[in-house]
Amino acid sequence: EDKVVQSPLSLVVHEGDTVTLNCSYEVTNFRSLLWYKQEKKAPTFLFMLTSSGIEKKSGRLSSILDKKELFSILNITATQTGDSAVYLCAVENFGNEKLTFGTGTRL
Amino acid sequence: NAGVMQNPRHLVRRRGQEARLRCSPMKGHSHVYWYRQLPEEGLKFMVYLQKENIIDESGMPKERFSAEFPKEGPSILRIQQVVRGDSAAYFCASSPSQEAYEQYFGPGTRLTVT
User: Fold this and answer.
1) Residue B88 and residue B65 in contact, taking contact as beta carbons nearer than 8 Å
2) Across the interface, do A99 and B43 touch by the CB < 8 Å criterion?
3) If I label A29, which of A46, A49, A82, A100 is the partner at 20 to 30 A Cα–Cα?
4) For residue range A80-101, what is the model confidence (pLDDT) as tens digits?
5) CB-closest option in B31, B45, B108 to A99
6) How close does chain B come to A89, measured CA to CA in Å?
7) pLDDT tens column, A66-77
8) Closest CA–CA distance from residue B40 to any residue of chain A (Å)
9) What is the pLDDT of residues B105-114, one digit of tens each?
10) Does pLDDT of B36 surpass 80?
């Protein structure tokens, strides 16, 4: 069965800090890994990663994938109060449209 | 371009009643996915539909739950004879095609069974 594990489960930081969120996975036929930010309602899409070693960046957020070691990290620099949310990691297999989510990291 | 729409946003049902949750995908999106989020848990896949077809229902409970995505109108997730354990947030997501991987989520329907 596909498995996604996120760590830490929760994290408290001060404004201005830099944080790193982790996501490791075990899937049968990996196609992509996605990061979402969930505040009180809908998860909002952040990044989709398909290739190892290529950093995706959007403002203060960045993410990278390591397909050999089966993990991804999400970095947030100069954190702000608006970054408070649950960050979800999900993976998708080829031939299977469903996303398998981790339980999230509450920042 | 409106995002994924779900209604109602909140639904309260007594045990044994039926719950109907609706999802209108983003304009131009033909793939719809339903996920359930129990309190303090991650999102769990339930079902994947395209117009008039159920593609993957491997995450749906075998009894009481059904889903459809008719040619016209929204996708509907139906839960018959609800029980307290059905209380959760139900999210719908949509994507334009099989080749476009990102799924965009609606605001969810929070179902409370009393």
Assistant:
1) no
2) yes
3) A46
4) 999 999 999 999 888 777 899 9
5) B45
6) 10
7) 989 999 999 999
8) 8
9) 999 999 999 9
10) yes
- Rounded to an integer, the average pLDDT of A9-32 is 94
- Own/partner pairs for A75-80, CB < 8 Å, 24+ apart? A75/A18, A75/A19, A75/A20, A75/A21, A76/A18, A76/A19, A76/A21, A76/A107, A77/A18, A78/A16, A78/A18, A79/A13, A79/A14, A79/A15, A79/A16, A79/A17, A79/A18, A79/A19, A79/A107, A80/A15
In sequence order, which residues have a C-beta less than 8 Å from that of residue A50 and are 6 or more positions away?
A: A31, A32, A33, A65, B101
Nearest residue of chain B to residue A45 (CA atoms): B104
The pLDDT of residue A97: 76
Whether the CB of A32 is below 8 Å from some CB of chain B: the reply is yes
Quick check: A33 and A99 in contact, CB under 8 A?
Answer: no
* Contact in structure between A91 and A27 (CB atoms under 8 Å): yes
- Asked if A32 and B42 come within 8 Å (Cβ–Cβ), the reply is no
**Closest approach of chain A CAs to the CA of B14, in angstroms?**
24
Cβ–Cβ contact A34 with B under 8 A: yes
Provide the shortest C-alpha distance from residue B105 to chain A (in Å).
Answer: 6
Rounded distance between C-alpha atoms, residue B61 and residue B64, angstroms: 7
Decide if pLDDT at B98 tops 80.
Answer: no
Give the count of Cβ contacts less than 8 A between chain A and B. 59
